[in-house]
């Protein structure tokens, strides 16, 4: 028996492809808080936005989403630093490895190898299992994870020489 795709899904896929290709719908409406002047600014302000969403969701009990957003914030912030201060390019981070940003931030002196090793272990041991595995993140895990990217994001913001881009406090 031949299998056919549900029409609703086919239409939704086509609409999403059109949206990403920006075809036929006039001038796209972009997220206004993202600074797109340079790749590092984009990554840093994406970190700001992910933190803002985590703030919104934590009190409502969306612990899985908070943990995921926190790991995303850490990666965007570290990528911003490596691009701004190390000369990396955004495409350097478009790999299937989430560890590159930790290694690059360490190489450029953002923090020690020991801390990078601990952050990578935190990611490897917990992010994957909370997102893909059977673990159910707790309120305490969400709260403590929420603190970590705020501190890393703040540290990155203070270490980037150009500064003035983070919009977390606006």
Question: What's the alpha carbon Rg, rounded to whole Å?
Answer: 18 Å
Series of secondary-structure elements, N-terminal to C-terminal: HHHHHH
N→C terminal distance? 58 Å
Instruction: Work out the strand percent.
Output: under 5%
> How many helices?
6
Shape summary: globular
The number of strands is 0
Largest sheet: none
Helix content: 55-70%
Mean pLDDT: 90
Overall structural class, as computed from helix and strand content, comes to mainly alpha
Describe this structure in words.
It contains 6 helices and no strands. The radius of gyration is 18 Å and the shape is globular. The model has no long low-confidence stretch (mean pLDDT 90). The longest helix is centred in the middle third of the chain and has 24 residues. With 170 residues, it is mainly α. It starts with 6 loop residues before the first helix and ends in an 11-residue tail after the last helix. Helices cover 63% and strands 0% of the residues. Helix 3 runs antiparallel to helix 5.
Could you write a compact summary of the structure shown?
The chain is mainly α and 170 residues long.
């Amino acid at each position: 028996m031949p299998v056919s795709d549900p029409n609703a899904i086919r239409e939704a896929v086509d609409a999403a492809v059109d949206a990403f290709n920006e075809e036929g719908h006039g001038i796209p409406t972009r997220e206004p808080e993202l600074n797109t002047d340079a790749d590092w600014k984009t990554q840093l302000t994406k970190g700001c936005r992910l933190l803002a969403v985590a703030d919104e969701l934590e009190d409502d009990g969306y612990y899985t989403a908070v943990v995921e957003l926190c790991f995303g914030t850490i990666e965007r912030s570290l990528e911003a630093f490596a691009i701004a201060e190390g000369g990396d390019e955004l495409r350097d981070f478009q790999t299937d490895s989430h560890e590159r940003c930790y290694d690059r931030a360490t190489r450029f002196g953002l923090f020690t190898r020991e801390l990078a090793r601990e952050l990578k272990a935190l990611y490897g041991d917990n992010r994957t299992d909370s997102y893909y595995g059977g673990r159910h993140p707790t309120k305490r895990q969400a709260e403590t994870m929420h603190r970590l990217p705020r501190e890393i994001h703040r540290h990155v913001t203070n270490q980037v020489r150009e500064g003035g881009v983070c919009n977390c406090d606006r």
